Amino acid sequence: MQWSLYEELIRHATQDSGALLAARKEWETRTGTVGPDHDLYHERSDAFVEWFLIERRDAAGRTPVEQALLDAPPSGNAARAEPAWRGLLLALRSSLRSLFRVVRLQPGGLLLDDLLGGARFAVEERRSLPGVQPGDLFEARLIPDPDVPGRLLLGRAVLFHPREAALVLTQRAATARVGLAQATSSDENPRSAFLEQLLRLRLKALTYRHVSPARIYGLSDDMARRPASLSPSA
Tens-of-pLDDT digits for all 234 residues of the chain? Predict the structure, then answer.
C-alpha cells in the first residue's frame, strides 16, 4: 500500500476549504464534536478523513474517491504513477467499514470477525496495538492492498470501544445485523448510521466516566444525541 499516494489524495480532495468545512460540520453532527484538545481528536480526525474521501457524496452524488477516478491524476503523479494511483482509488472504493471483534492475534496481524456482516478476515497490521486482546471490539476500515492481491490492511482509523460495554455492544450489533440484512437499496447507508451512533456513545462513555460504559451503550439513539449531563441516577 503506497500511503504517500493516500496523502496525495487527501491534498487533492481537500482543496475546497468551504466544502471541507461543511463536511466537518456534517461529521460532527453525525458522530459528536471533538475539539483539538480532546483525547480522541487525532483518531477521530483520521476517521473523518476516511469518511470524507470514501463515503461523503457531493451535489453530483459522487465521493471524492469516485471523482478522482474520473479525473486525471493530480500534478506530481506522472504517467508512470497512474496505475498505482488508480489501484489505490479502486482499493479505497471497495473498502469495508464495520465493527470488528478480535478473534486472535497472529504474527504480523489479526484474525477478526465482522459483527455486522458475519465474515471472518485475516488482516495484516504492522502498527503496534498495545494491550489488544481477543474479544476486543473496534471500528475500522478494511482495505484490500492494491500492491499485494489477497492481502487486507486496516485503515488509519482504528477506534476501540470500552471492554466494559462489550456484551451490550455485541447484542446491539446482532440486532443491527438483522436490520442490515433487511435494508433495501433505497435506504440511507444503515451500516454507517449504526457505526456513527456507536461513535456518539463512545464519546459519551469517555466524557461521563462516573457512568458505566455498559449503561451508556444501552442508551437509545435519541438519548445518545442529547448533550445534557448524565448522572448515576439518570
Answer: 788 889 999 998 999 999 999 999 999 999 999 889 988 899 999 999 999 999 999 989 999 999 999 987 766 554 446 888 999 999 999 999 999 999 999 988 999 999 999 999 999 988 877 889 999 999 999 999 999 999 999 999 999 999 999 999 999 999 999 988 877 655 568 899 999 999 999 999 988 989 999 999 997 655 555 553 333 333
138 vs 122: CA distance, rounded Å: 15
**Boundary of a domain, candidates 160, 180, 212:** 160
Supply 209's cell numbers.
Answer: 466516566
Domain, as residue range, for 192: 164-225
The pTM for the full model equals 0.87
Q: How far apart are CA 180 and CA 178, in angstroms?
A: 5
In angstroms, the CA 60 to CA 87 distance is 23
How many angstroms separate the first and last alpha carbons of the chain? 47
| 3 and 88 both lie in a single domain | yes
Task: For the beta carbon of residue 132, count every other beta carbon within 10 angstroms.
Answer: 15
- Identity of the residue numbered 108: G
Burial of 169 (0-12, 13-18, 19+ CB in 10 A): buried
